[in-house]
Design brief:
- This protein has a five-stranded parallel beta sheet with strand order 4-5-6-3-7, with helices on both faces. It has a three-stranded parallel beta sheet with strand order 8-9-10. The protein has a two-stranded antiparallel sheet with strand order 1-2.
- It has two domains: 130 residues, Rossmann fold (3-Layer(aba) Sandwich), CATH 3.40.50; 164 residues, P-loop containing nucleotide triphosphate hydrolases (Rossmann fold), CATH 3.40.50.
- With 341 residues, the protein is of the alpha/beta class.
- 39% of the residues lie in helices and 15% in strands.
- Helix 2 packs parallel to helix 3 and helix 6 runs parallel beside helix 7.
Length: 341
């Protein structure tokens, strides 16, 4: 893998990331920005009581874990309790923080990953081996639950059912409540049985509020002219890459999204030259997945051309992936803001 220094930035396009099933499993932990997340460190907005209620709901769900001797744990028997909790709300209301806090509090063997990481794991290991690997875990956390195609709907429904049968509890976040998954993306009525089966496993907790990333940041992604871009790259400490925006899009098309985490590994900042708006929704969705990995790793972005919060055209923002694009915009504003290190 190519590395770079601030004095001589390399290119992301030169990287050829690989990721085995075992490596995916090692990555099934909260992103580094949530390594110390707790329920006490979550700061609910008092203007939105549902945020405080969500903390209480997670604390209540947490009581389902009880310690016995040594490192052995069991669940309290609560016949009316569902095996999963589902945090539904807009982007930037702290859903991932709460999910990570629950993961840290849970005992025993546990996993935390994105929806795409779990589906990629099945693709690499096969279904039976994935179930064998994950079953018996105390908790499985799924961040940004997505159902962009019916095949993944069926796969995750079956996987979660098998894991619940092994005693695993579930926690998930999404921008869409479980009984509306797939709405506006594909013919949801054709897969209603699978979607309803998922919904029945979760207690849904609604979280309202404002995007915390934009409370202290004025609302546009920072765009630089060429001299400012060069100066910012030169000042940035650590490992930096510089690519044209088109080179990035070409790279993302050649790498499975499950490997994006390895693509950005060890980076401190990335530079994008000649950013432009999207004309292809497939490119746009790949870029959203890439932005998620940059945000998880808190990698700074420097960019020239079109402001990164303006790359998704109106027709895309008006479509079924609106919430995904708006989440990416929020994160792009955060990652391009602030003084370079």
């Amino acid at each position: 893998m190519t590395t770079a220094s601030a004095a001589a930035p390399g290119a992301l396009a030169d990287r050829t990331p690989t990721l085995s099933g075992e490596e995916i499993v090692r990555h099934l932990v909260p992103p580094r920005q949530f390594e110390t997340a707790t329920l006490d460190s979550y700061r609910p907005d008092r203007d939105y009581p549902s945020q405080g209620a969500a903390v209480a709901a997670i604390r209540n769900f947490e009581t389902g874990f009880t310690a016995t001797r040594g490192s052995l744990f069991s669940r309290r028997k609560a016949p009316a309790a569902l095996p999963g909790v589902y945090l539904d709300g807009g982007f930037g209301v702290g859903k991932t923080h709460l999910l990570a806090a629950l993961w840290h509090a849970a005992p025993g063997r546990k996993y935390f990953g994105t929806f795409i990481e779990y589906t990629a794991l099945v693709g690499l290991l096969g279904y039976a081996q994935t179930v064998e690997l994950l079953k018996g875990a105390s908790l499985l956390c799924i961040d940004e639950f997505e159902l962009d195609d019916p095949g993944d709907t069926r796969l995750m429904s079956r996987l979660l059912s098998d894991l619940v049968a092994s005693g695993t509890r579930l926690a998930a976040t999404s921008n869409t409540p479980p009984n509306a998954l797939g709405e506006g993306r594909f013919a949801a009525q054709d897969f209603l049985r699978e979607i309803d089966a998922l919904a029945a496993k979760f207690t849904t907790v609604r979280i309202d509020g404002l995007d915390y990333r934009r409370r202290d940041i004025e609302g546009h992604a920072v765009v630089l002219d060429d001299p400012a871009f060069e100066a910012a790259i030169a000042r940035q400490a650590g490992t930096v890459t510089v690519d044209t925006f088109d080179a990035i899009l070409g790279l993302l098309a050649s790498v499975h999204p499950s490997r994006y985490v390895r693509l950005v590994e060890d980076l401190d900042a990335v530079g994008f030259r000649d950013v432009h708006s999207f004309s292809n929704q497939t490119d746009a969705l790949r870029f959203v997945a890439f932005v998620d990995r940059l945000y998880d790793a808190q990698i700074r972005i420097f960019a020239t051309g079109t402001a990164l919060d303006s790359v998704f055209p109106h027709e895309m923002l008006a479509g079924g992936y609106r919430k995904k694009y708006l989440r990416a915009v929020s994160r792009l504003i955060a990652l391009t803001s602030g003084a370079p290190e």
